[in-house]
Amino acid sequence: MTKNILIINANPKRSSFCQHLADTYEREAREQNNTQRVNLSALQFNPSLDCGYDDEQPLEPDLQVFQQQIAWADHVVIVSPIWWGSLPAKFKGLFDRSFLPGFAFKYQGYTPVPLLTDKTSRIILTMDAPPQSLQDQAASVIAQLDVFTLQFSGFQPSAVSLFGSVVAASESEKSAWVNEIKQLGRAAK
C-alpha cells in the first residue's frame, strides 16, 4: 500500500549526519510511496509561542505549509539529534507554533481531544554522548516528542531508532546505521 510519508530533518544545521539519514530514508521510501521533506534549517519562523494560547499568533508561511504536510501525511519520520538531553530548541519551537488547538487537538471542556488521528511515526535519534547513556538521554526526548506531542495529538505510538555515539562511531558502525535506515525506508516504517 502506498503511503504519504513526511520526512523531517530536525537538525537545525544545514549539513549533518541527521541530514544524511533523512536523505537515505527519503531516497528509499520514494520508490514505492509519496514523500515530502522538511529541513528545519530551511524554515523561517519565530520558534517562540509568545502568548501561549491566550492570543492568536499568526503563522508564518513555512508553518502553514508544515501544517498542510502534517495533515497530508500518513506516516511521519523524524530524524533529530539529542542535544543536552533534549530536542534542538528550533525543533521544539516548530511543534509549539504549529501543533495548536484546532489543528492538532481541541478541548471539550477541560479534556483534550486529538485531531491528528490515523497517523504513524518513526523517531530516529542521534547523539554524541557515550553509548551507555543513550537510553537514559533518549527516554526524556521520546516521552516529550512521542507521548506528549504526537500521541497527545492522535498519532499511534512511535517506532524508535537510536544511534550513538555518532562522534565516536567507526565508519563501519555508521554504515550499518545507514543500511538500517535504507531498510526502514524501503519498508516505509
From TrEMBL:
GO terms for cellular component: cytosol. Keywords: Oxidoreductase. Residues 3-178 form the Flavodoxin-like fold domain. Pfam families: Flavodoxin_2. One of its GO terms (molecular function) is NAD(P)H dehydrogenase (quinone) activity. It comes from the Bacteria. Belongs to the NAD(P)H dehydrogenase (quinone) family. This is Flavodoxin-like fold domain-containing protein.
